[in-house]
Amino acid sequence: MKRTIQILFIVITTSFIFYGCMKDNMHPITEFNTSNDGVFIVCEGNFMYGNASLSYYDKNNRTIENTVFLKANGIPLGDVAQCLTINGSTAWIVINNSGKIYAIDINNFKYKGKITGLTSPRYMQFINPNKAYVTDMYSKCVYIVDPNTYSVTNTININDNSETYYRHSSEQLVFCDDYMFVNSWSYDNKILIINTLTDKLVDSIEVLNQPRKIVLDNNKKLWVLCDGGYDGSSFYGEAGILKINTNTFEVEQTLAFQTGSKAIDLKINRTGDTIFFINNHIYRMSINQNYLPEEEYINSNGHNFYALGCDPYNSDLYVSDAVDYMQSGVIYRYNSSAECIDSFSVGIIPNSFVFK
After folding, report:
1. What is the DSSP letter of 79?
2. Residue 281: is the preceding peptide bond cis (ω within 30°)?
């Protein structure tokens, strides 16, 4: 038995090395045509396992199709799928540890092209059809890419030359009035501000430790969810939510969580007047509220809530349960009355939802 396990381990390890080194060799397994409304669900998979995947949920028929990238193209997605963004008829999938971004058709999921030469890409945000920014965990820069040629055209230096921590990392991006607001999450406490007309870092805003998620409301105020770091870390601190004025770059409001919080995700509804966040449970609050809600909107009931999605068309709320981070995750769909109207299994560690 032990010998069998050893052989199996060698085969699996060799397969991962092979897939990591091989060039893309597309051989479609399944043909798709999903012109109807649906939801992309990005499943990041486990670090160094190469088991990231992409699922697609048909909202009207309530059907789920898993591993659609693999089925449509015949190759695995890669190592840690970080996010997906849609621009026109193309979906761009950022594969963090594989250092690349795949472009696929939003209806048939077929490969269109890819961007390479990235260190540890995290998120992608379009400024116009010919220009997008890509953030990175370790490169201390934000990449400028041309989506038409699938190439990196330039970089924006965000290195603050700090010797204490490896600053700055860059994460999510929010575009507002020619400025791109970028959260520096890993061992950091800054919101970076980039002028998209000059492609230069022009300012930064200090927030609580480890700003994890950012959203923009209908008053053009930036909301920041800070997780505070993890207990035992030398960078452990207060977690909470902040509101920032995007005109003055000043923090207008800070709402601190209690010690022992588990701040994971933050989303805003389709009208931009209500935010939802995960702090063990799911909470809802108005953007005009100056205090944290005392009661949860949706109790986790022992689930490991990991990601949120707000449907921009009907206000449904999608919530992922990462379970134990090793087995298939579960998605719960709630209506505007917080009633669970559907649930289904997807890939490992579902981390985000993108509505088509």
Report:
1. S
2. no
Output phi, psi for 168, to 5 deg: -100, 140
pTM for the complete prediction? 0.91
- What strands, in cross-sheet order, belong to the sheet with 131-136? 121-128, 131-136, 141-146, 151-157
Q: Please provide the DSSP assignment of 175-217 as one string.
A: EETTEEEEEE-TT--EEEEEETTTTEEEEEEE-SSSEEEEEE-
Let me know: does 194 contact 201? Beta carbons within 8 Å. Answer: yes
Q: What DSSP character marks residue 15?
A: H
CB within 8 A of 57, min separation 6: which ones? 38, 39, 41, 63, 64, 65, 331, 344
d(CA 273, CA 251): 18
Amino acid letter at 351? N
Do the Cβ atoms of 73 and 26 come closer than 8 Å?
Answer: yes
pLDDT tens digits, 201-241: 999 999 999 999 999 999 999 999 999 998 888 889 999 99
